[in-house]
Amino acid sequence: MTQRSYRLVGICPDQVGIVARIASFIAAKGGSIIGASQYEDTETRLFYMRYVVDADSLNMDADAFRAAFDPVARELQMEWRLTESAKPKRVVLMVSRLDHCLADLLHLWRSGDLFFEPACVISNHDDLRELVEWHGVTYHHVPVPREDAGKQAAFEQTSALIRAAEPDTIVLARYMQILPPWLCSEYAGRIINIHHSFLPSFIGARPYHQAFHRGVKLTGATCHYVTEELDAGPIIEQDVIRIRHHDTVEELVRLGKDVEKTVLARGLRYHLEDRVLVQGNKTVVFS
Amino acid sequence: MTQRSYRLVGICPDQVGIVARIASFIAAKGGSIIGASQYEDTETRLFYMRYVVDADSLNMDADAFRAAFDPVARELQMEWRLTESAKPKRVVLMVSRLDHCLADLLHLWRSGDLFFEPACVISNHDDLRELVEWHGVTYHHVPVPREDAGKQAAFEQTSALIRAAEPDTIVLARYMQILPPWLCSEYAGRIINIHHSFLPSFIGARPYHQAFHRGVKLTGATCHYVTEELDAGPIIEQDVIRIRHHDTVEELVRLGKDVEKTVLARGLRYHLEDRVLVQGNKTVVFS
Amino acid sequence: MTQRSYRLVGICPDQVGIVARIASFIAAKGGSIIGASQYEDTETRLFYMRYVVDADSLNMDADAFRAAFDPVARELQMEWRLTESAKPKRVVLMVSRLDHCLADLLHLWRSGDLFFEPACVISNHDDLRELVEWHGVTYHHVPVPREDAGKQAAFEQTSALIRAAEPDTIVLARYMQILPPWLCSEYAGRIINIHHSFLPSFIGARPYHQAFHRGVKLTGATCHYVTEELDAGPIIEQDVIRIRHHDTVEELVRLGKDVEKTVLARGLRYHLEDRVLVQGNKTVVFS
Amino acid sequence: MTQRSYRLVGICPDQVGIVARIASFIAAKGGSIIGASQYEDTETRLFYMRYVVDADSLNMDADAFRAAFDPVARELQMEWRLTESAKPKRVVLMVSRLDHCLADLLHLWRSGDLFFEPACVISNHDDLRELVEWHGVTYHHVPVPREDAGKQAAFEQTSALIRAAEPDTIVLARYMQILPPWLCSEYAGRIINIHHSFLPSFIGARPYHQAFHRGVKLTGATCHYVTEELDAGPIIEQDVIRIRHHDTVEELVRLGKDVEKTVLARGLRYHLEDRVLVQGNKTVVFS
Q1: Three-point CA angle C153, C158, C159, nearest 5°
Q2: What's the rounded mean pLDDT across residues A232-243?
Q3: How crowded is residue B67: how many other Cβ atoms within 10 Å of its Cβ?
Q4: What residues of chain A have any CB closer than 8 angstroms to a CB in chain D?
Q5: Alpha-carbon radius of gyration of chain D
């Protein structure tokens, strides 16, 4: 964490010599590579990469590095970005009433274990105001009515609040409302949800009830990017816990909280550290 | 394993005093209880139990014990059975071409780590004859044609072979055919299948392909009782393994073999030790 | 949680008829058994049990039940206790500077997911006062000097604070001081510690450094009862997480926090629900 | 598996430009990089790498590639090797009486799931001859007496058999003898052992008994390189399974077999695929 670094993340058509081209460019600037991951997808013939360069080894700042890299990227037809490890991403957190995921993220932020800047919290209930404000974070209460007109207005207000917060990332930390398609597509690839089942099992409402009635022996949680189709976006991280025949739905809910918060924190960390590249409806996650 | 025991397994309507009634009956016969598990389902108000009694502590054999217990069971309206730990269950193993599950079960049997008697192996291919016969187990090759008439004849022959083998249990150890409903219902609660996904995800054919295309981060295997509805029977055991973005379908298949054989061996063990009681479309599994 | 119940927990020499004796006693009082676990240790010939009885099904209160059971227990030479699910155990929490375990326990308490009454928090630092007091819990700052006299005085003050708090249980939620033997023995079987390694590996100080230098591929956490011998008491719960060659000590520390807080919460839950019976230097944990 | 590739594996002092140097060299030969992993150890300032190059994309064979790379390696002061994915490594398997690991490895080999060439099996007992010879593999029975002179003679005979087999790798698949130091050092970095505990817990004999008496809640297995110090060599892979208070030592032994064979197969696979680089007494394992 103490080492200031740049992360050069990109996707381009595969061809001989890409690594040489990238690495030679970095070396020519005096850059010391402190981490490099790449993946060649044999189906699509696409090349995915993440290079981490010691910022202090370079004789230029991030913007100059970007300007210098641009011609290389064009040549390789690469979609890319360069981010700085020292710059926290701005995150809007959305939540309903259950606070286990939110409380965990706020704790990880406060203790310095997860590096981001909480822009604000938006909730359709007012229950968690005290917790959030104690952390010094702004809390917006935007109730979401059931009828269409009210719902549309609520999401327009939500959208305005999000826009004002200028977030890099939006996290649905058990926000129990379905975002409208226009909002999903506005922030495509930047909205992260935690779903309380092992997707694609138990899509939609009340997954613990579904799991209970199917009699599965493990239950899980899934962290994924939100797309317009419900619970169908690219999966970032998943995990499961073992359950027993004597566990009631209430106990599944309680046991599930542990795995939900862990999986969301891990998935968000990968995203914040620019380790996740979307590959169609899947993800490449560099370790 | 050295201790000879009786397993008294039953289900009855819940009421005050059942445990006292059962335990007093056993104590009156001088029986030493070396294991007792019970479960009260609050929804159905049913009581599930498994008592293990030291056979040598009783002053009677299994049949005498059964006869003595019968009135108690009637009084409690209990469906029950008494099995003997020293008597191996007869198992018919069914397999197609992939041998990882079959080889593992035969090895566990041969090394004494899984206690059963392999009645015979039935396969729609002849590939695994050598492996099976080396273990001294009878091998039946029953090809299953694609057209209906041939298929029906094949399953009638299969059914005759099973009947002749007088099995307690039938294990589909990656038998890649769908059994006809009449065969499923004839051996209801006694056919165990290993499905190569974490059910209810990826029901049906080619689950590893489905998992690959959905981009899940864990894949799994499910051991369940076979019912007339495909891959929908009561689940006995499940487990998962972590996969990575660079794993191809072929690697998922290979990685999955480990978890398939482990989950099938565990599920079958629970069944052979009379730890599994079916509860609607779920199972109670006593540890 | 809604069902009020009594937990009858005991250990006695094994003999034929114990279950019958206990279950008949409960049935005679009209008690409905909603959970029963037992274990016969074949080495020591001891019988361990935990019975959960629906309180509303009994025609007597807890004290009357205790009085009625006493002669049965004497007859069976049983060490036993009867606790009430509706009565929260009083817990003293001790902590140093790292707050991940404490914050998690306070959150679980506040959200109703872990049922206990935080009597107070005692810390050798003042850092976590704000967090604790925000939860409405009393915070005692008792610095622990390095020299013997000061240390002895500090632990006498600690002991006085504990005594005044009248706790059922003391939790060392990353309290980085070694308690003196006299304090350990005063609360034998009631002090729970979380050790940040997979015991018995990496006993003592800086276990993550030890794990890093040994090059293990998994690291873990252990929740155990504190005895006079360091990190050697009966283990209640353990778990591990996978680590990679590129994880630094700092990352092990961070990754370990997740498993520490999970393992402590699970172990404490088992203890609070009277599921843990000490068996020499081991534990029986009823699920 | 179908793609023929070269694996270029090396360790050298870290400096700016290594990746550029390697990748440019490969690109200059027309080589298509289909996998690249690297790791910079910040303590030792060493650089570890594994490049996988599509063999068919190169205009030269392996020896020509080696000759061409040699000057680059000298320049970088790199210790390196180039292996061919199409050339199976020759493996000598050593075993005592328990056959679960051996049977699993032979099965994986026979089914094509693990790519190696079993040179021979050496055992201090004659029990597993039939199993091994059925697989068409040579079996050597070399009894190991208890007294020193006999033991020395036995290991000289063992050493001669190993030398004659010209192995790349020696696997101790539950070979219950301690190899003499001179044999360990002769094949340093090439002897792989499976130890039946989660090292460094329970070093030496009867680890399941040790685990049972300590009362751990998880038990494990460790795959590591053999060094002269018992059970202290670099760890390649580990895993654990959950155990319960009612599990006897015999059950730990049985449960442990599953994790032993899985961990050995995984560790050996990493080694066979040249994913493991020794780093002092630790390993870098590229995924």
Answers
A1: 95
A2: 96
A3: 10
A4: 16-24, 26-27, 30-36, 38, 40, 57, 287
A5: 21
Token match 């300032």: residue? D45
Whether D258 is catalytic = no
CA distance D11 to C222: 37
- DSSP, collapsed to helix, strand or coil, labels residue D101 as helix
Among D202, D235, D285, whose Cβ lies nearest the Cβ of C216? D235
Q: Select from B46, B219, B245 the residue whose CB has the most chain A CBs within 10 Å, as the one to mutate to test that interface.
A: B245
Tokens 């041969």 — which residue? B110
Burial category of A30 from C-beta neighbours within 10 Å (exposed 0-12, middle 13-18, buried 19 and up): middle
φ/ψ of C77, rounded to 5, equals: 55, 45
DSSP state, residue A275:
-
Contact D101, D173 (CB under 8 A): yes
- Contact (CB<8Å) D262/B262: yes
Q: How far D113 CA sits from the closest chain C CA (Å)?
A: 24
Q: What pLDDT band is residue D51 in, cutting at 50, 70 and 90?
A: very high
Tokens at C30, concatenated:
């009209």
User: Shortest Cα distance from A29 to chain B (angstroms)?
Assistant: 31
Class of domain A89-285: alpha beta
Q: Residue C56 gets which letter from DSSP?
A: G
Q: pLDDT per residue over A72-127, tens digit each?
A: 999 999 999 999 999 999 999 999 999 999 999 999 999 999 999 999 999 999 99
How far lies C273's CA from each of B19, C96, C182, in Å? 22, 26, 27
Closest CB to D31 among A16, A24, A33:
A16
- The residues spanned by each domain of chain D are 5-84, 89-285
Alpha helices in chain C, H assignment, sequence order = 18-28, 62-76, 100-110, 129-134, 148-165, 181-186, 207-214, 249-272
Contact C113 A257 (CB under 8 A): yes
- Name the minimum distance, in Å, from the CA of D98 to any CA of chain B: 9
Per-residue confidence (pLDDT) for residue B59, from 0 to 100: 85
Least CB-CB distance to B201: which of A200, A244, A245? A200
Residue A86: helix, strand or coil by DSSP?
coil
What is the rounded CA–CA span in Å between residue C265 and residue D50? 41
Q: Which of B5, B37, B40, B275 to mutate to test the interface with C (most CBs of C within 10 A)?
A: B40
Q: Which residue of D has its CA nearest to B114?
A: D254
- Under DSSP, the state recorded for C180 is P
Tokens matching residue B251: 């690697």
Of residues B266, B255, B125, the one with CA closest to residue B197: B255
* CATH no. for A5-84: 3.30.70.260
Contacts of A227 in chain B (CB under 8 A): none
Rounded Cα gap, residues C182 and C133, in angstroms:
30
Chains touching chain D, criterion 3+ CB pairs below 8 Å:
A, B, C
* Both structure tokens of C243: 């680590």
B179-199 in b/e form (b: 16+ CB < 10 A) is bbeebbeebeebbbbbbbbbb
- Chain B residues inside the 8 Å CB shell of C287: 287
> Interhelix angle for D249-272 vs B249-272, to 10°?
170
Partner residue opposite A30 with nearest CB, options D16, D26, D33 = D16
The reply to whether residue B234 touches residue A245, judged by beta carbons under 8 angstroms, is no
The predicted complex's ipTM stands at 0.95
The tokens describing B109, both together, are: 């049997």
**pLDDT tens per residue, range D1-26:** 457 999 999 999 999 999 999 999 99
Q: Give the closest-approach CA distance of C266 to chain A in angstroms.
A: 10
**By the 8 A CB rule, do C197 and C219 touch?**
yes
**B235-242 and B218-225 as β-strands: parallel, antiparallel, unpaired?**
antiparallel
3-class SS of residue B286: coil
